[in-house]
Specification:
The protein has 151 residues and is of the alpha+beta class. Helices cover 33% and strands 25% of the residues. The chain has a five-stranded antiparallel sheet with strand order 1-2-3-5-4, covered by helices on one side. The model has no long low-confidence stretch (mean pLDDT 87).
């Protein structure tokens, strides 16, 4: 009898949902970005590099917004990463009730365009993003991107 190797009983899946919390302070921005990147690598998520780079920029922008605008009422934020067969979704939750809106491009301003950038990255990748209220009065800002570039 010829042996052709073992076939695992259950293939390893990269799909799942992971959530972590962080204090709403500046150092949490790069820590959240690195944690998401490390999670994606550890799980073996087959995401294209340009999508991954956009996703990491989105994480940075959303955590930065929570740190800058929600920390007074929300000293802790939560980051969630959900991965499906063909998509990846990141969200940042805080307990501040203010629902932000994306500003129009004003090149005279040095800030305030984070959500506009998130929306542009998401749209260009063929994904979607939104802001939702939580039952506790806070908000969740999320973006979902396909794992592969849309043709």
């Amino acid at each position: 009898m010829e042996s052709r190797g073992r076939v695992p009983a259950h293939p390893v899946s990269y799909e799942g949902v992971w959530r972590f919390t962080a204090p709403a302070v500046d150092v949490s921005v790069p820590q959240a970005r690195h944690a998401v990147r490390d999670l994606i690598e550890r799980q073996g998520v087959p995401v294209e590099d340009d999508i991954l780079q956009g996703l990491l920029l989105i994480v940075s922008e959303l955590v930065t917004n929570a740190v800058r605008h929600a920390a007074l009422l929300s000293p802790e934020l939560a980051v969630e990463v959900a991965v499906g067969a063909e998509w990846i979704r990141v969200s940042v939750e805080d307990n501040h009730p203010y629902r932000p809106t994306a500003l129009v491009t004003d090149y005279a301003q040095t800030g305030g365009r984070g959500l506009l950038l998130v929306r542009e990255i998401t749209t260009e990748a063929g994904g979607t993003c939104d802001v939702e209220h939580t039952a506790g009065g806070g908000k969740i800002i999320w973006a979902a991107l396909p794992l592969k570039t849309q043709l």
